[in-house]
Amino acid sequence: MRDYRIETKCIQSGYTPGNGEARVLPICQSTTFKYESTDEMGRLFDLEKDGYFYSRVQNPTNDAVAAKIADLEGGVAGMLTSSGQAAVFYAVFNICGAGDHVICASAIYGGTLNLLGVTLKKLGIQSTFVDPDAPEEELAKAFQPNTRAVFAETISNPALVVLDIEKFARLAHGHGVPLIVDNTFATPVNCRPIEWGADIVVHSTTKYMDGHAVQIGGAIVDSGNFDWNAHADKFPGLTAPDESYHGVVYTERFGKKAYITKATVQLQRDLGAVPAPLNSFLLNLGLESLPLRVERHCYNAQKVAEYLNAHEKVASVNYAGLPGDKYHDLAKKYLPHGTCGVISFELKGKREAAVRFMDSLKLATIVTHVADARTSVLHPASHTHRQLNDEQLAAAGVSPGMIRLSVGIEHIDDIIADLSQALEQA
Ligand SMILES: *Cc1c(COP(=O)(O)O)cnc(C)c1O
Questions:
Q1: What CATH number is given to the structural domain containing 242?
Q2: What is the pTM of this model?
Q3: I need a surface site. Which of 129, 152, 312, 356 has the fewest CB within 10 A?
Q4: Is residue 44 a part of any domain in this protein?
């Protein structure tokens, strides 16, 4: 559905019923699929034929939603995973193995920091964390002969650093590796990283895409643009025979869909982080209203950021929608219609004031979550980024007194009234 606008794609893409079929995407709650002959099923196992056989690998409900998200991002193909963490893991592990190296922006989600910095290291994959704002020449020094990918977030969670996507794409491509971008906070409504040079896009669909906090999920979208064969020695997993499928070569058999096909038929087969079809159905309902919700989240967050910025008890506010924000110019370029509903700020009274403020909120609730319809609040230093030491906190752009406020889609006056009474207590 390449010609439709994003509002239309959010409703229509991914599933088109045939004559007499269900108008709404059906939940295909079946683990298995039936075939008439042994031979036909055998050919599915050899990837010689397209079709469903076991829901760990592929399921029609999951695939329809993956196709919708791929269309929203402007990619050639997509897949769903059971969480955003699994999506990030697969996206990297699909092209990296022991002895390989990843360059990652230091301002990223705490879970990704742990995954790359601790867990992948145990599998022999090393990561170098770089300041996303550093000049190009500086960043180029982080590349090694074994570097296989560059990873960053469009708008980082929770530091709200806006990525210079073109700079990162240039660096990655100049060194013959793909750029993987986590587009969770921006959503394809506000930014489509592929249009700026990203090769792979990942999402935690748990956040705005779902929008109602009812399912944990992830997605990977392949732009189809990266030329794996031009760097065949770096990516043998895609360009050399896969013994586990009788020697299939993904780039030969699947062309532009090589990356996502490998992630689906190999990683999903072997690691199994697959979403339940019911969860994909719920995610699809969220996607239908995504453009409306994102618009309201951004409107409300802008008002809240302006309110906090003018408040005497507030020391600083991070929100790229504010003209004085460090990332305002990058946001105007990459996110001209708005950034997201998440704001971070610090009170003059630091950590203790932050705790008093949060404990006094009535409408906004303390939850380990962001980016859903309800206004919610979290203290990164004692919650999501609890495992990091002060140095790592600073690198991730998280100060001990920072409050992460996820502005919901309630009425703006009610949100501000709640903040106002809690600030009086702080
Ligand atoms: C939440 C989040 C993740 C992890 O996603 P889960 O669905 O919680 O596993 C990854 N990246 C970003 C930017 C996130 O906000």
A1: 3.40.640.10
A2: 0.96
A3: 312
A4: yes
